[in-house]
Specification:
Rossmann fold, alpha/beta, 7 strands, binds adenosine-5'-triphosphate, 34% helix, three-stranded antiparallel beta sheet, 6 helices
Length: 204
Amino acid sequence: MSQFKNPFLRVDNLYFNYEENIILDNLNLTVNRGEVLWIKGSNGVGKSTLLKILTGVIKIESLQMKFYDEQFKSMNDYKKSIAYIPDYPMLYDFLNGYDNLKLIMNLWKISNKTKYIDLANHLANELQIKDYLSQQVGNYSLGMKHKLFFIAMFAREPKILFMDEPFSAWDNKSYGIALEILQRYKEKGNSIVYISHLENIKMI
Ligand SMILES: Nc1ncnc2c1ncn2[C@@H]1O[C@H](COP(=O)(O)OP(=O)(O)OP(=O)(O)O)[C@@H](O)[C@H]1O
């Protein structure tokens, strides 16, 4: 059982449809501090849609989302305090790794730039892609792109990490290192919400 029992957020009576296609109906969900939430289910059941709603990528006027953190004063503050890692890495192929990191850092208006770059470098070292950061991302493998985007989001030090099929392109060794990183992250009271079809993806 987690030592952090209080919630970060709660969603009540969530309903969502794409035209006549009802995707989510009366869904209730709580994200507790220091906990991992695994969303699983058949193809097309609405997992990615749910993650997009929880991260504010899809906006719903009637969304009943309650925040329980002093930093989540508004939806915008909340979005700055969390990170969303979709199943495709959102990077610019024509930039190198460092320039992608700097771009993301500036987009998110990170105030402590030195800390962000230091943390990103540290993670890149742990995940063994530091030597590639000065190379153009277009030449990265898919797994390397996934790692770089994970690093870019993780270095923002979010309170909740939302991940859609996070490690599908990662090799076993890197996946093991990522789990250690996420274990430390969780122990600090942060939360992880992730989607995976893999029955053996025992997160942490
Ligand atoms: N932009 C969209 N417009 C209309 N329908 C959509 C849109 N995006 C997704 N859908 C539909 O909504 C349903 C849920 O899609 P979603 O991607 O959330 O499912 P999923 O559970 O994540 O699936 P998978 O396991 O295959 O990734 C599917 O029927 C899909 O076709």
